[in-house]
Amino acid sequence: MKSYRKEVLLNIATHQGFVNITPQIKDCLLESGVMEGFLLINSMHVTSSVFIDDEEEGLYRHYETWLEKLAPVLPAGDYSDEVIGEDIIDSHMKRHLMGREAMVAVTKGRLDLGHWEQIMYGEFDGGRPKRVLVKIIGE
Amino acid sequence: MKSYRKEVLLNIATHQGFVNITPQIKDCLLESGVMEGFLLINSMHVTSSVFIDDEEEGLYRHYETWLEKLAPVLPAGDYSDEVIGEDIIDSHMKRHLMGREAMVAVTKGRLDLGHWEQIMYGEFDGGRPKRVLVKIIGE
Amino acid sequence: MKSYRKEVLLNIATHQGFVNITPQIKDCLLESGVMEGFLLINSMHVTSSVFIDDEEEGLYRHYETWLEKLAPVLPAGDYSDEVIGEDIIDSHMKRHLMGREAMVAVTKGRLDLGHWEQIMYGEFDGGRPKRVLVKIIGE
């Protein structure tokens, strides 16, 4: 059994944003030498997502509006406790709507994805360095 | 280490619909001969879901209404870009609410599921052939 | 290849509630002896969630309000079928918003989590015993 681990580093300048990380993940898989197995990609932060979707700019502009509607920034008065303080409860919520992680099958040394499937990173509290974990187990 | 891969084919006639695919997945597991490991089931499309829930017709009628409320079909005027064009942005959104994939433990050669857990396929852009990937890794 | 399986038992007194189960999962990993691999944690019930988030009491009070807004208890008149009967359709919906399962990488015998990542259990139909499945595969 082979195991491989790498952290992919990201720094999205805007508060919210989406990036296609499939090329970096392909590099990881090649480096791992795994031919058959599973590949896990997860955000190591609680305010960003890894998920699978089409890479289509127009789609992500719609997502931004949609996520803001379902998980709006809370009014200041709703922050009754000092512990959280920061204005990022909506970032946590948006991340749950889009998910933390994706699991991809590895077949014949390749990411076993459908035609339109791309591995995307979704940031909901950007402007600082973030890490994505890539772990591959197989043979 | 054993590895197994199969595509399960589906064709839901309606635009939106839900199907219990547990029987097909059980057949895959039997065919694989894996006794201990993990089984991944994921939609290979970006407008449909694999998730785990009770098989209960009434439940899915409520889901249809609920998903339409949370991720409604966008008015035509909202499609400002020609790239997407098609009326399926809501299908992408619904799929994120229900999820792309499920991971199931394999124990003693069986799907290690709770009493009410069934593996479901959710279609949000039906009327054409779709594929679900089943990948099993273990011994 | 090593495989490990355990059920973690929970009993949340309230209808809805959140509990940090990271300590129990760490014990499982230690007991398994797995150094490199994957660890799956999933609810074995269709009305509760396993997900990863910060452990921060204030956050969960906001989640309760938020989930009730996105997936409210349905009015009695909406239950047209006797098959479901019980007032828990919203519990199913809430569980989908928060997810059924989490996959965690195991690296050097430890849960490979980011600084704020905790493994949380979310209950949406409490007041009775529930089970969480922990399955570990690796070496």
Structure commentary:
- The structure is a homotrimer of 139-residue chains.
- Chain A is elongated, with a radius of gyration of 16 Å.
- In chain A, 25% of the residues lie in helices and 36% in strands.
- In chain A, strand 5 and strand 6 (110-111) form a beta hairpin.
- The first copy, chain A, has helices spanning 22-32, 57-70, 89-98; strands at residues 2-10, 17-20, 37-43, 48-53, 101-107, 110-111, 118-123, 130-138.
- Chains in contact: A-B, A-C, B-C.
Structural descriptors:
25% helix, alpha+beta, three-stranded antiparallel sheet, 139 residues, homotrimer, 36% strand, 3 helices
Summarize the structure.
The structure is a homotrimer of 139-residue chains. Chain A is α+β, with helices and mostly antiparallel strands.
What is the topology?
Three copies of one chain form a homotrimer.
Chain A: E1 2-10, E2 17-20, H1 22-32, E3 37-43, E4 48-53, H2 57-70, H3 89-98, E5 101-107, E6 110-111, E7 118-123, E8 130-138
Antiparallel strand pairs in A: 1-8, 2-7, 3-5, 3-8, 4-7, 5-6
